[in-house]
């Protein structure tokens, strides 16, 4: 085979390459130029759990060159089992240079071996078996665990402390959606690269490092534009998502009510539509016709049309659900029952507080966005007084626009609230930023004039003195929602705000 490759390459004055699978079958024959070879899409041989692709790449060089930078880049990005370069002397194989990747953590990333072709010997099956076993040991990952393995990336020119806070939150979001976080990369740059966020060379090295570690998913903290996602995915076969997509995925997993499912699917489709793209010609094959117009649509156009149709269908369904919600609101107004809504940053303990106030059993979990569906419970007081307590979806900084618009209908219920309980996790070191983020969202929704009780939760995680000082600074109350005794003063404050200060009657005058 080597003789045939060298002979044809010499005759055509072009580089010739072959890809061979582990069964010894040739899967591709590639004809390049005199200087290089363009490797085709290898979608039938995806990079999976194993550290290498399962393909050998053998090709010729015309001028007796060693493996060049392009060869090494192909080896590292495409994860070939081994790369071999044949040099020839007037159409006959002369030297062979083999290159293979080394396990993660080694001082060198790859090894180059050279020899005369006639003396070259290699037991490939034994070699590749030993190499992959060593690579698996170096990666320190559980190959039986089917969860996605993520590399978290933040690229920004913001101050270091802000980047650290955002990265910590991104890690919590990743763990909330059951990802295994392999590593975190924070890249401070003077200017954001409009195409790749960071420099192309830096991104290439980062992708290679990710594949060395066994990463299957790149998660960017910054929201990527459609063109940025295309540029980055063109460079790697590892899946690429941004923070918005991660949040949408969490919402999709956690929404249980029909209302919530419709809103989340609508947000996902609106997010996906501008990012829909075909890779190569497979997604946009046109049948020839008069004038070259073609009798049918491209697959890309079909996908877009179907998504637009689905969006229209969901918008109609959402209007029906909104109508039912309006009717429920009308009945509550007729009954003149005041509404108190618990709001706050995600994972502040809103559902736990609802359970403590109303002796109910709403699902609770120490994760971001553990509950998405609005829960409402009645709270009864003496003198035949009662009110409705509602637990809203958690807020978060820079909530994706598609999600804000989708959940506006749900958050509109806050307009009918007589009182808002703004719950804050006092144990979170960034609670001040969380308060600001919630206040910004309330202002966007036109709800910043509502009466609010600021409540610091998880007071059991700090000393009583620390809690008292923070509460005094913010004119707030400190509680621990898991200790119902600490909630009793809050109930008194709610009762006083609603009936003694006439908050309920004032709110309903508009």
How far is the first residue's CA from the last residue's CA? 86 Å
Q: Name the shape in a single word.
A: elongated
Strand neighbour order, sheet with most strands: 2-1-3-4-5-6
Residue windows where pLDDT falls under 50 for at least 5 positions: 279-296, 504-510
Report the helical percentage.
40-55%
Indicate the radius of gyration in whole angstroms.
30 Å
CATH homologous superfamily heading of the largest domain:
P-loop containing nucleotide triphosphate hydrolases
Percent range for β-strand residues: 15-25%
Top CATH class of the largest domain: Alpha Beta
Describe this structure in words.
By secondary structure, the protein is an alpha/beta fold. It has three domains: 2-139, Cytidine Deaminase, domain 2; 149-250, Rossmann fold, CATH 3.40.50; 336-507, P-loop containing nucleotide triphosphate hydrolases (Rossmann fold, 3-Layer(aba) Sandwich). 41% of the residues lie in helices and 20% in strands. The chain contains 15 helices and 16 strands. It has helices spanning 2-12, 69-78, 124-139, 160-176, 200-213, 226-235, 243-254, 258-272, 299-335, 350-358, 401-411, 431-444, 464-474, 484-500, 503-507, and strands at residues 16-21, 26-31, 55-61, 82-89, 92-101, 110-116, 149-156, 180-188, 217-220, 239-242, 339-344, 375-381, 385-391, 419-425, 452-457, 477-478. The strands form three sheets. Strands 2-1-3-4-5-6 form a six-stranded mixed sheet. The chain has a six-stranded mixed sheet with strand order 12-13-11-14-15-16, sandwiched between helices. Strands 8-7-9-10 form a four-stranded parallel sheet, with helices on both faces. Strand 1 and strand 2 (26-31) form a beta hairpin. It is elongated, with a radius of gyration of 30 Å.
